[in-house]
Design goal:
Layout: E1 3-10, E2 32-34, H1 38-45, E3 52-60, E4 66-68, H2 76-86, H3 94-107, E5 116-120, H4 124-134, H5 140-146, E6 154-158, H6 161-164, E7 167-175, H7 177-199, H8 209-215
Parallel strand pairs: 4-5
Antiparallel strand pairs: 1-3, 2-6, 3-7, 5-6
Helix pairs in contact: 1-7, 2-3, 3-8, 4-5, 4-7
Length: 225
């Protein structure tokens, strides 16, 4: 990939991203979360009554180990396994608890050895879609469809000291909360509404969490592609 431009939405101007800061229970664990899309960074920067900043960086990927979860060797279940390991998810049914254990055992990549991860972003609505799959509420196909709603795209997560040494602050753009908080909420609401319409189309022949458990499906199972 070489040098690319990334944005990080935040209430603060961050000229020097620091390794080890942040929340450990984000999608991919501790790291610095960025996007290639300025408008999305503006949305993520704002809270309801506070403006934010879309910090712009140059990021040099040369020499870095990159885990791209969108590449053909991975499935959405690999992304889900990482999410289940890091995000706080209340599991109240036997199938959901067994499902989490099975996904972590059979689909969790060794993601901590990489400098950078590229993969889905799980906003609140997207996290609820993932939870619906683990609890056997939606099929794998419906989960894949849901993750494309709202057009959040992919996020880049810097995970290692080496990755943090490869990012350089350029400048920032102010994000007006009166505009971008509303845009973020509208995007989330639209994704949820589209998802509810999809749920009305019962996926009788789809693969559900219970099917994966019952048939002990593994990473190389063509039905998961």
């Amino acid at each position: 990939m070489g040098k690319i431009i990334l944005y990080h939405g935040s209430p603060d101007i961050i000229e020097k991203p620091e390794y080890g800061k942040g929340k450990s229970y984000n999608d991919y664990g501790l790291g610095f979360y960025c996007t290639e899309h300025l408008e999305l960074a503006k949305e993520w920067a704002c809270t309801e009554n506070v403006d934010g900043y879309a910090n712009r960086y140059e990021f040099d990927t040369v020499g870095l180990a990159v885990l791209n979860l969108s590449s053909k060797e991975y499935t959405i279940l690999n992304w889900l396994a990482i999410l289940l390991q890091n995000r706080r998810l209340r599991l109240s049914t036997p199938v959901s608890r067994q499902g989490k254990e099975y996904l972590l055992k059979n689909f969790l990549p060794d993601y901590q050895k990489y400098d950078v991860i590229i993969g889905y972003r799980a906003d609140d609505s997207y996290f609820s879609f993932a939870r619906a799959f683990v609890t056997n509420g939606i099929s794998l196909r419906q989960l894949g469809y849901a993750m494309k709603l709202g057009k959040l795209g992919e996020q880049y997560v810097l995970k290692s000291p080496k990755a943090f040494e490869s990012i350089r602050f350029l400048d920032y753009v102010v994000a007006d909360n009166s505009i971008y908080y509303a845009k973020r909420k509208a995007r989330d609401d639209a994704a949820r509404a589209d998802f509810q319409r999809e749920l009305e189309k019962e996926d009788i022949d789809g693969i559900f969490m219970r099917d994966i458990l019952r048939e002990e499906m593994k990473q190389d199972d063509p039905r998961l592609r």
